[in-house]
Amino acid sequence: MTSRAVPHAATPFDPFALQRPTAEPLPLIADSPHSGLKYPADFGYALPFDELRAGEDTDVDVLWQALPAVGGTLLAAEFPRSYIDPNRDAADLDAALLDGPWPGELKPSEKTRLGIGLVWRDAGHDGRQPIYSRKLSVAEVQARIATYHAPYQRTLLEEIEQAFQRHGAVWHLNLHSMPANSYEGLQIQTDKPLADVVLGNHDGRTCSEEFTQLVAEAMRRRGLGVAFNDPFKGVALIARIGRPAERRHSLQIELHRGLYMNEATRERSAGFPALQQALGGVAAELADYVRQQTRG
Hints:
Blueprint: E1 6-9, E2 16-19, E3 28-32, E4 38-40, H1 49-52, H2 60-63, E5 73-77, H3 110-113, E6 122-123, E7 129-130, H4 138-167, E8 170-178, H5 182-185, E9 197-200, H6 209-220, E10 226-228, H7 236-241, E11 248-256, H8 272-294
Parallel strand pairs: 1-4, 3-5, 3-8, 8-11, 9-10
Antiparallel strand pairs: 2-5, 6-7, 9-11
Helix pairs in contact: 6-8
């Protein structure tokens, strides 16, 4: 398959694609924050493009394309996470990247320490190659937030809130893929193999156990191995959204990239159609559950 990635896309462009339900609308809201393939012309990266692309969750939005047909809403970023990451808080920023003081409080997380905070410091197939040969201006980072990050997060939160107001409950799926060397990239020493699917709910704090297990069983019935919160628990976005005691559920779903792509070239592998079909079945099961939960 020919790459759809655009290394120097004309700016600005729409920060996201929003697919609304084509069936009876359900309070099932999904987002793919890291599948963007349009690299803005003002990025100014110094890393070879094929190394920079290693951070993409390439084609995750396509793998889950059945969601609107079963009543779900699917939001997908058009910009790359390495440019600015919509799955991070706006204060999760590395001050060392900047050419001047940030006009506000910064709250760098563990992701920033690893070089993958709001604005990435490092990328590459080993996750350790510097993206820039320059400092970033405060103004350009502010522009990235205003043009891409803020509209994405605002739209996602609006869709979730509107669904909750209509139905009295909402289920949010935060959709990702993970490289084969995820443990290494997170600086975790282990001999455990990476699961096919990792479900993250902050150790039960962002999503009910019932829904988490429903997703796990739907995956397992399709031959996929499932792990929970290992090595990904979910980050700030699902922590902000998920309050299961209030019927607000948020679950991160990570798919092993080896199931569907060649990680070196980003091209779809022979396993892509089967995984896409399997996830279509998972989406239908989740929609049935949400429908039952909201019809009283």
